[in-house]
Amino acid sequence: MHTPTNYYLFNLAISDLLMLILGLPQEIYSLWSAYPFLLGETICRLRLLAAEASTYTSILTITAFTVERYNAICYNPMRANNSNLSRVIRVIIAIWLFSVLCSIPVGLQFGIVYIKANNVPILESAQCNTINEAEAKIVFQVSTFLFFMFPMAVIAILYFMIALAIRRSVLIRSGSDSSNESQTVVDPELRITQQTQVRQSVLKMLVAVVVAFFVCWAPFHAQRLLVVYVEDWTLTLILVHDCLYYVSGVLYYISTTINPILYSIMSVKFRQAFR
């Protein structure tokens, strides 16, 4: 059980669980009572900071898991489950520290915002929202690059390399089985067929992982960037924003449930492909 894969999966499960605990109750409550926000500015910022940190941790854990699988499969398949565990623990600790540090600027962009009538704040309109659009624009841009575009590129490229490695591995083993046909009681064609099926299953899983990552997080960052970039809101843009807001909210929490399942299944299929 003490393998790099299990360590990363456990850390992913913790970060995803925190995303649910820290975000979902407030989201559900806001559906019934959007105004006013009664918990104060400190809780407003801490809630966003904690949710952001757990989100970043989840994404970076997925990226680190991908790098770990790439190194194990493409450079040393025989030691795929025997990597230095102390190094993995250090990576996980670094992920949490980096995530918390990067979430602080995001948390500072939020505060209690009021709708004003005749330049007088309406207390019942209190809402936890961005308080400095200029700074929020920069922070959200950096966040989108560091925690969506860059991880997406890394994951897509490394899984493509892993797919090529799996394909080469099966072809090499297929040739070896064919050359040893007279020395084995196992039908080599049957073995080749089984290996091909396993390979195709793994390749489908790799595609599913990349697609799932993009689908779950693209609307979230698109909605954020839409808010900070759009100045003249038309009816169409408002409808697009509202659609992205609810879709990204649902996918945000769906990702917390499918991540551990998806990556657990994938790690099993990796082991099958490299038997």
From TrEMBL:
Its membrane topology: Multi-pass membrane protein
Keyword Transmembrane helix found: yes
Domain G-protein coupled receptors family 1 profile: 1-263
Primary residence: membrane
SUPFAM superfamilies hit by this protein: Family A G protein-coupled receptor-like (SSF81321)
One Gene Ontology MF term: neuromedin U receptor activity
Transmembrane portions of the chain: 7-26, 46-67, 88-115, 145-166, 201-220, 244-265
GO cellular component: plasma membrane
Superkingdom, taxonomy of origin: Eukaryota
Database matches in PROSITE patterns: G_PROTEIN_RECEP_F1_1, G_PROTEIN_RECEP_F1_2
Keywords, alphabetical: Cell membrane, Disulfide bond, G-protein coupled receptor, Glycoprotein, Membrane, Receptor, Transducer, Transmembrane, Transmembrane helix
Record localization: Cell membrane
Family assignment from sequence similarity: Belongs to the G-protein coupled receptor 1 family.
Name of the protein in its database record: G-protein coupled receptors family 1 profile domain-containing protein
Native source species: Lottia gigantea
